[in-house]
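Hey team,

Sharing the SPK domain-containing protein run so nobody has to redo it. Sequence (481 residues) first:
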Amino acid sequence: MSGDKKVEEEALVEFLEEKCEAKEVLIVVDVAKEFKDKKGVAAAVKTLTKWIRKYSNEDVPQIRDEAKRAKQLFGLSVTINDNLLKELQAHAHVVLDSNGKMVEYVANDGSLTLKGDQSHGSKMKKVHMCRVAAANNGNQDSKTHLDSDPPATKRSRVVAPGSLSRPANQTTSMTSGSNQSVGASSSSNLVGQMGGSAMPPNASVVHVPAGTLARGLNQVQPSPPPTVQLDADRKIDELKKTIETVTKEFNDINSKNRDKIAHFQKEIGKQSNQLDAFSTTLDNYRVANEELRKEKVESDQEKREMMKKMEQMEDLHKEEIKKLEKEAAEDLEKKVQERKNMVDVIAARTVYENMQTHKKSTSEMEQRHKEEIDEMKRKLDESARIQKELEDQHKKDQEERTKLQNQIEQLILNHEMFSRVMNSLNNDGATPSNSNAAVGMIEQLRTAVAEEMEEEAKSDGQEASSTEGAEDEIDGAEKSD
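Structure output:
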């Protein structure tokens, strides 16, 4: 609705409430036409019908007054879901048909009873009856109009072929005013539309008085000769059929154009939704980029902590080696001192075996320490490799995001160009060339969107695999520590 939309909507709601007070099933289209005729609103019947259906499905179930809500649910044929049915059954006995529409409502306190048929056939029968009644009323009015017309002042006069004379009073009446000239012009135009002359060459010329022509097509005219009458009726029927055919083709063309415009508007809505989806994807990439940055900071911190742990472990190993060497030296000195007094070969052999055992244990300890140092170096190299992969992935994501932004800007430009094309179509009317161009642009947009979605899916898969691999490697390094 244009103009004061809110006021018109409130007026339509009040009108629907009044119509529903009749406790009958309403025909939405007829209600919209009646409202448009009575209130004189500028909105089209289709727009009013669409708004009534929206009001029925969204606002009517929210009405707090039970009786008022039941009347509108019944009158507007609203489909009732399970939750709404439970609410209604708390106050009344409710029966629904197979389509979920109310066919019976009896309040528990007996204050309201609604019964009716919600089937499509019943509604069509009601529409047919209304149209028949309206047609009967129209025929009665037409008959009354014909009866109220004044009688013809003068009958038609048939002149023999070749006669050029006419009565003096008829000549005076044909030249006395502009109404007679208009009637004569209309008569000649009608003859021209019926294919030239309406009478055969051997037919009598019929002169109709100007007063009779001025009364219009509803005035009963004197019947001409049968041949002329049949030929004129036949050509009038052909003309009516031609007019009906042209009118039907014109309406079909208008309907197709409206369908095309609606289709293009729907495509514009889809493109807008896709643009919103790409904006959401861009926001997701920004969030993912921020998460990667945080992961990089955490990885750097873990690397520093790992280096610190390695230095601490190396210091501990050095201290343990010194401690073992000192203990070994003290032990060896003590044992040597104890064995100095022993000249037994067995004692000397025992000292030798102890020295060999100590030497072997020291060698194994050094070898184990060396392996641990090599393992720590390998972990450091692995961490550096993971860090490099993360940085490469980050750069790749930056490039993908830049590419996506460029594509979104291109889509916005395409969308603007498409809107201009649609505006041009709406202003100039849809033509096959314009429609083909618009369809081509839509196909290009769809192709671009499909390619971008595939690239996005590939990049998401690569990002997920690289991130999971890096996390597994870091977890493995931490477990090995």
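The longest helix spans residues 226-339.

Ping me if you want the raw files.
A.
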